[in-house]
């Protein structure tokens, strides 16, 4: 009498699918780690605005008028600059370097959806941007007696101006990254643009004291409107009368920043390149 034994059944396990949110957050963590490992990126992106506050606030200790101290005015420009640096300048430099090294070309050939790469950049910019703002406020409050916003409305304005501003800068940074011919020349392409915008947008100087032609050019770009929106948060309401439009014009701030979000997105869709020009 023969006996038969059943062969053990093999259980096939299907890999658990990772949701889109988890994919974006995972890529974001990777981008943050890479950012923190680059000493140059950390120093230039996060330390530069803090160094500027320490220098300028120590030199100019008086008032600019209307009972407003220079530090109170200057912090608005440095927060806007910090957001522009992490959103526009860092991406306009990082992406060409990754493109030059073939990182983007390899990612394009993997099953990973393309949007995950950009989601990782957005997460990185958001986290570093919040850390940048917190660091700037901490330094200004502890060392230079910065007066923080005293109403919920001002904090709300602070939030939407920062959100729209960093979104516009991020999209413009991704689009601008296609202009650099190589990773080595990315810094030389993006840095002069950022510096010029800072000087003409009222970051280092009182905006209304700049030549009118500079004010008109600055009004085209988002940094000027970021600074103006933040001035409504940190400066008295009466100081709005000294703005070029006679008020802080928060409605126009929202319109211009939202418009640059749309412009930046369109430019990203039509200009972004995964490979270098020599690769075709």
UniProtKB/TrEMBL annotation:
Lineage: Bacteria, Bacillati, Actinomycetota, Actinomycetes, Micromonosporales
Organism, as annotated: Micromonospora polyrhachis
Protein name: Transport permease protein
Entry keyword set: Antibiotic resistance, Cell membrane, Membrane, Transmembrane, Transmembrane helix, Transport
Membrane-crossing segments per the record: 42-60, 72-95, 115-143, 155-176, 188-207, 250-272
Main location: membrane
Subcellular location: Cell membrane; Membrane
Keyword Transport: yes
PROSITE patterns hit by this protein: ABC_TM2
GO BP term, example: response to antibiotic
Residue ranges occupied by any ABC transmembrane type-2 domain in the UniProt entry: 40-275
Keyword Transport attributed: yes
